[in-house]
Amino acid sequence: MSVQPGWYVDPADPETRRYWDGEGWLGAPIPVDATPPDGPPPVEPPPVPVTPVTPVTPAAPAAPAAPGPAAPGWSPHPAPGPQPGHGPQPGQGPQPGPGWGPQAGPPGWPPYGVPPGWAPHGGPPGWPGRPPEPRPHGQALAGYGQRFAARLIDFGLVFALNALVNGWFVWRWVQEWAPYWRELLRRAARGDTSTEGMPVPSEQAGLLLVVILVIATALWLAYEVPAMAAGGQTVGKRVMRIRAVPLAADQPLGFGRALSRWTTLGMPTLLWYCAGLGLLLQLVDALSPLFDHQLRQALHDKRAQTVVVQVPRTTGAATQNDSNQPSGETP
């Protein structure tokens, strides 16, 4: 996602603000608390090279020589001063070496010795320094640690709900498998690796596992989707002061977008029955923000076109200062 042109805080100097034209910084910086003008700054005229002028001191008049016989072929009144074609001419300074420009650089180099095609700051073409970090709707992106801690809090709450609602089904499922595991441990202690005569769980064990996963998925859906649809925050996100917002506008997600976001991460819970395939898919989704260096979007964020941002802590004067930021500090 490209950074749109506008006035942004200079990452190299947070006390100043500069204009970003989509490819590089343009113009001189202004104080960060100053109101930026509409549009880009006026183009500054290039500096005019000034050639130093060396004043020519007129030669002192020569003292009259005593009259005497002149050498054969010499003029009786020699002209004082330098001979024609030698020395500096009036109104001119020292001349540069042949083929070099007025700023002591090779031919074709711009003023001040900057190599051709390089930006004035000394970097390669198109490198304005470190690009500013995206700020969707003027808010900073949530950090990886904040998102991980919020997800752990939410998982803890959903687990507590499952302990209350799903506890009896889990206990029955454990009872179905308990004879098998006890016999397996007893044979392992004797060094017996045979599997003949092992107690086999009944068909009810498979049905119980399906019921457990369906209830767990439904509880997670009921916990997360309504809260995200209304305000973009679960309990964990409120504690960590982060929230999910649409990329298009700073507004509530709505039920459809919140459901689309959750299904990418929550629905694979039903596939835990398939040798843990669902758990693997959820792990990939949870780690995906680490590989998105632009907006730190997880796979469920990309599907629902959302991004997770930090909730501002300050109000009042700080909010008024933020109002000077153009809409969408960076895309």
TrEMBL record:
It is a multi-pass membrane protein. Residues 142-304 form the RDD domain. The chain crosses the membrane at residues 152-171, 205-223, 270-291. One of its GO terms (cellular component) is plasma membrane. Its main location: membrane. Keywords: Cell membrane, Membrane, Transmembrane, Transmembrane helix. Residues 37-52, 64-131 have a biased composition (Pro residues). It holds the Pfam family RDD. It is found in: Cell membrane. Residues 1-140 are annotated as: Disordered. Residues 53-63 have a biased composition (Low complexity). This is RDD family protein.
